[in-house]
Design brief:
311 residues, alpha/beta, Rossmann fold, eight-stranded mixed sheet, 52% helix, 14% strand, disordered N terminus, binds zinc ion
Length: 311
């Protein structure tokens, strides 16, 4: 609730002070805070604790997201593990990128057909159904080319092949910004997508912005994007995924999440927002390696505890 203490001039000053606080201070401080945070926190916190902290927005007190705008680069690539992740996580960003006339592409890593046995379809029939929905969504986002479908049945078994395919796409398209699921996302395929991307980026010589998007949970947001002018296109993209939407209403839940994130900016400044965890290429590669090592040691500790409990 607002406190009325003065006339229009006072309100105007208050408004600008609030904007200054929300935008300018954020710009001034968040980069250094972010670096400190990367160095001190992500390196040695147990992965499970880090994931819990991220889900609970624990970092909101000291990582203040900076507003970003399209275009995000001359050539953007969205790395999507499954058909629908590209719309849920960064559909708004993708639509805004194409609205500026800048290049954008999608690479789909997995065939999206896990659990096909219960559907009455073959694995390849389910893949084709979901790929077609993804083609329609790409059109709705204003992309001139369909997504590039790699159709791997298992990402963990396809690390070498998939990372080489992603590297070739990044090199061929001179990609300078990549969207990928947030590194601590709850779905194992989404975490594998990060390992695949990090391997690919090791063989790229230029800097690439990496932006981690939200699908199965919250990210640690250090950048925020207003998507008010792309929300209808994003809704159209989400509606294309009829198969996934029969299990979970992703259109409704995603639009709701984007509406919730509008709180990151001042009242009247934003209705819908996407949040990302942005990190440059070199730091990203290191971070993926550290979280991989942390995941491995957490898994080993868990296995030891379980075997002790059994004995
Ligand atoms: Zn997914």
């Amino acid at each position: 609730m607002a406190r009325h203490t003065g006339g229009p001039a006072h309100n105007m000053i208050y408004y600008y002070l609030r904007r200054l606080y929300r935008l300018v201070f954020a710009l001034a401080y968040s980069r250094t805070q972010f670096k400190l945070f990367l160095g001190a926190s992500l390196g040695d916190i147990n992965q499970r604790m880090l994931t819990l902290a991220s889900e609970a927005d624990y970092f909101a007190g000291f990582v203040r997201p900076v507003p970003i705008q399209a275009p995000f680069g001359k050539s953007v690539l969205v790395v999507a593990p499954h058909q629908d992740d590209e719309a849920i996580g960064c559909g708004g960003a993708l639509c805004l990128q194409t609205q500026t006339g800048s290049a954008a592409a999608i690479v789909m890593l997995q065939d999206g057909a896990d659990g096909f046995e219960t559907t009455g379809m073959t694995r390849s029939q389910l893949t084709e159904l979901r790929n077609e929905e993804s083609r329609q969504a790409a059109k709705a986002a204003g992309l001139t080319e369909p997504p590039i479908f790699l159709d791997h049945a298992s990402l963990s078994d396809s690390l070498a092949a998939a990372s080489e395919q992603v590297r070739a796409i990044i090199a061929g398209r001179k990609v300078d910004a990549v969207f990928v699921p947030f590194i601590l996302d709850a779905h194992p395929d989404h975490r594998w997508a990060n390992i695949i991307l990090a391997e690919a980026l090791k063989n790229i010589t230029w800097n690439v912005r990496v932006l981690g998007y939200e699908v199965w949970g919250m990210c640690i947001p250090n950048v925020v994007l207003v998507i008010d002018t792309a929300i209808e296109e994003k809704r159209k993209m989400l509606d294309c995924f009829k198969w996934a939407n029969t299990a979970v209403d992703y259109t409704n839940s995603t639009i709701g999440l984007n509406m919730f994130h509008s709180r990151m900016l001042g009242s009247g400044l934003c209705r819908y927002a996407e949040r990302f965890f942005e990190i440059p290429r070199q730091e990203y590669i290191g971070l993926v390696e550290r979280t991989r090592a942390s995941a491995a040691s957490s898994a080993a500790a868990e296995a030891a505890t379980n075997s002790q409990a059994r004995n």
